[in-house]
Amino acid sequence: MVDIPYEGIRSIPPAEVPDVELYHPRSWWTRYVFSQDAKVIAIQYSLTASAIGLVALVLSWLMRLQLGFPGTFSFIDANQYLQFITMHGMIMVIYLLTALFLGGFGNYLIPLMVGARDMVFPYVNMLSYWVYLLAVLVLASTFFVPGGPTGAGWTLYPPQAILSGTPGQDWGIILMMSSLILFIIGFTMGGLNYVVTVLQARTRGMTLMRLPLTVWGIFTATVMALLAFPALFVASVMLLLDRLLGTSFFMPSLVEMGTLSKYGGGSPLLFQHLFWFFGHPEVYIVALPAFGIVSDLISTHARKNIFGYRMMVWAIVAIGALSFVVWAHHMYVSGMFPQFGYFFATTTLIIAIPTAIKVYNWVLTLWRGDIHLTVPMLFALGFIITFVNGGLTGLFLGNVVVDVPLSDTMFVVAHFHMVMGVAPIMVVLGAIYHWYPKVTGRMLNDALGKFHFWVTFLGAYLIFFPMHYLGLLGVPRRYFELGDTTFIPSSAHSLNAFISVVALTVGFSQMVFLFNLAWSLFKGEASGGNPWRATTLEWQTPETPPGHGNWGKELPVVYRWAYDYSVPGAAEDFIPQNQPPRATQLIQGAAS
Amino acid sequence: MAVALILLLVAIGSVLFHLYSPWWWTPIATNWAYIDHTISITFWITGFVFVAVIAFMAYCVFRFHHKEGRRADYNPENKRLEWWLSVGTGVGVAAMLAPGLVVWHQFVTVPADATEVEVMGQQWQWSFRLPGKDGKLGTSDVRNIASDNPMGLNRDDSHAQDDVVIENGDLHLQVGKPVKVLLRSVDVLHDFYVPEFRAKMDMVPGMVTYFWITPIRTGTFDVLCAELCGAAHYQMRAKVIVDEEREYHAWLEQQKTFAELSPARAVVKTTYQSGGK
């Protein structure tokens, strides 16, 4: 038993709430379209990300049709297949997950959870969304330009990304680079906002160590993204120069389609270093918000404080820092200097320790809890299983020599889908079920939600767990057809067909979720302000959905950490962060 | 309690799938069984952690799911428990990393008696080169590539003249002999991948990469490209045949050297150039 540090109340600064100048909308356009309200921007980000995410989902169906039933669908050729995998990967990692976690959840939750009226730079925040939308439109336009989108793989490795043996060499690759550059500009405007808001706009009493882990996760991920995206930015600019102006940053002397090209002197490995210096932190840019959000889901729905809060915060920070010194574990077989392997294998496996601590603390939060198996809780449990599975297979790929036979096989595909596809999306879905009532004032339908969970969780597991074993067998990734080999038995083709059928089923079951979102908006049960009886500030707003400025006349004052669930002696099993100690109702006879 | 049971079944089902599914690594054909052993160790440790975490979680869901009147404990921290879990994890990580690094050391340390073989990748085919009687591979450069010199060998290098050049053919290796496989590409990234060898490495234009193996059994093995190299990536195939010593030399005798393959035209070209000036 540990005492709750109420002495923190003394550190609350004098009760001056400076007038916050907010731009109040004067017309329909500035309220709903060119809005400077972080909550509206969050919804704009989320809807845009989801829309382009649906495109990626359809692309994955086309890929699975080809992989499961090669030769059956004449409308998919080898070039298109490469274009599908490239666009699917890029959309999912950057335009869906990064945008949704930071632009969507970050915008909605940061001001509400820290007790601010809005982001500190609302105008820049609005610009961030519109530049993001432009990036998405440029990306989507590549489906309609001559030659189609680039088929270089989402890693866009030169030299092939800009040479004529690769589909989309004309317009596709140029627009892809342009879109990435725009995305990074847009993200930087939003990202600076999130960081400054967390550091400068917290309400009285909201110390850093009282922040909900959701804010810690999004905050750390944003700091990382601000440091990592510049590497992708310069790589994109340099590759664009190589393609358009004939520079040779990444291009050695080489033969293009039988003739000696004009390039010479560049290094393809330089691009890989720049790409993965961004690319590995990117994994955690997606994972850390998920870690934070799932911690809050588990705590709220198990009615128990998150176990080891301080350790959880330090684990987030440690993972964020370590993730900048592990990037070359994506390059063990790239041909880089072999002695680097020792260093990067060691750092990579060390990162497993803070990550494991987070997993232990999630399951230890369940221990002696009061577990409500709501839909958000189910998704949180699904996250733990898929994340543990995907995290453990990372220990194979991170351990340099074990990676040698497994790299570039379906094992890698299975691993990263489990750990940064399925697991974060479990959190996204759980979070939507959790916060939908705050955003709309209505509950999502519970029965549809449970159906959605079980089909998605079990289906996704059935897709990606067996896929590891195809990789172990040696089935390479990014193959349009496996063709004739001596080592791939026909049973492996049957497994591929099975995976495709399950993937299509899981894909279509998402329509149930979309229906639920639309139907509940009008017909859902009214939720009230705090349906989950949660402690964090966003549930304590005077209005639901919260109005512009979030808090009415006075900002909330915070008296405690975010996890006062089932406090001994208290009558209710939760005490909101803004409830003064004297206002806490006690059980009859309990000492205060 | 259905939810707890399903969660537990996911863990048990995963273990059973691992044990009984027909999909497993190919029978190894080189000395890199060490890599397979390291994978096995990793499977044991991670499998144990996976089952333990999921089983604990399923038990919690079974034992502590909401009932009327249940109230959660209030238990913010437990330094001792967190400390022990961190140390235990560290030990597990070390148990995987240590053998991994030892085997990596072997992997990057080429034995002195290894003979060299060169594999060259280009969109979308493989070429091979073996040192000739002098035992040395001649130098090469992408800028030397011509229709009569597809591997870009350096004509002025005497070591290159007797090199055995194999185009659109299969590579033969001798069983039991360590070989350093030198890898290069003339256009984009490729990766020389033979599943049974376990070793693989990208081929990067502008540099020479390598790995080494000792074939331990005879047979014919598929060569695939494992690094996306454009539209026909999936069709970039060849075969490697591991022979006994006698068959290997019989095959080697039949191969043509660089000098035999393109001497005439080289002379013609030189004459023409000097005649023109």
UniProtKB/TrEMBL annotation, chain A:
Organism: Bradyrhizobium frederickii
Phylogenetic placement of the source organism: Bacteria, Pseudomonadati, Pseudomonadota, Alphaproteobacteria, Hyphomicrobiales
Subcellular location per the Swiss-Prot or TrEMBL entry: Membrane
Domain Cytochrome oxidase subunit I profile: 23-559
Keyword Lipid metabolism: no
Pfam families on file: COX1 (PF00115)
An annotated Gene Ontology molecular function: cytochrome-c oxidase activity
Family indicated by similarity: Belongs to the heme-copper respiratory oxidase family.
Membrane topology: Multi-pass membrane protein
Protein name, UniProt field: Cytochrome c oxidase subunit I
Transmembrane domains' residue ranges: 40-62, 82-110, 130-151, 171-192, 213-241, 274-295, 307-328, 340-363, 375-398, 410-433, 453-475, 495-519
Main location: membrane
CC annotations in GO: membrane
Record flagged with keyword Transmembrane: yes
GO biological process, alphabetically ordered: aerobic respiration; electron transport coupled proton transport; respiratory electron transport chain
Keyword tags: Electron transport, Heme, Iron, Membrane, Metal-binding, Respiratory chain, Transmembrane, Transmembrane helix, Transport
From TrEMBL, chain B:
Family that this chain belongs to: Belongs to the cytochrome c oxidase subunit 2 family.
Pfam families membership: COX2
CC annotations in GO: membrane
A molecular-function term among this protein's GO annotations: cytochrome-c oxidase activity
Cited CDD domains: CuRO_HCO_II_like_5
Transmembrane segments: 41-62, 83-104
Localization per record: Membrane
Statement: the UniProt record of this protein carries the keyword Electron transport: yes
Positions in coiled-coil regions: none
Catalytic activity line of the entry: 4 Fe(II)-[cytochrome c] + O2 + 8 H(+)(in) = 4 Fe(III)-[cytochrome c] + 2 H2O + 4 H(+)(out)
Membrane-topology annotation of the record: Multi-pass membrane protein
EC number from the UniProt entry: 7.1.1.9
UniProt lineage: Bacteria, Pseudomonadati, Pseudomonadota, Alphaproteobacteria, Hyphomicrobiales
Domain Cytochrome oxidase subunit II copper A binding: 112-254
GO biological process: ATP synthesis coupled electron transport
InterPro entries per record: CcO_II, CcO_II-like_C, Copper_CuA, Cupredoxin, Cyt_c_oxidase_su2_TM_sf
Entry protein name: cytochrome-c oxidase
Major site of localization recorded for this protein: membrane
Keywords for this protein: Copper, Electron transport, Membrane, Metal-binding, Translocase, Transmembrane, Transmembrane helix, Transport
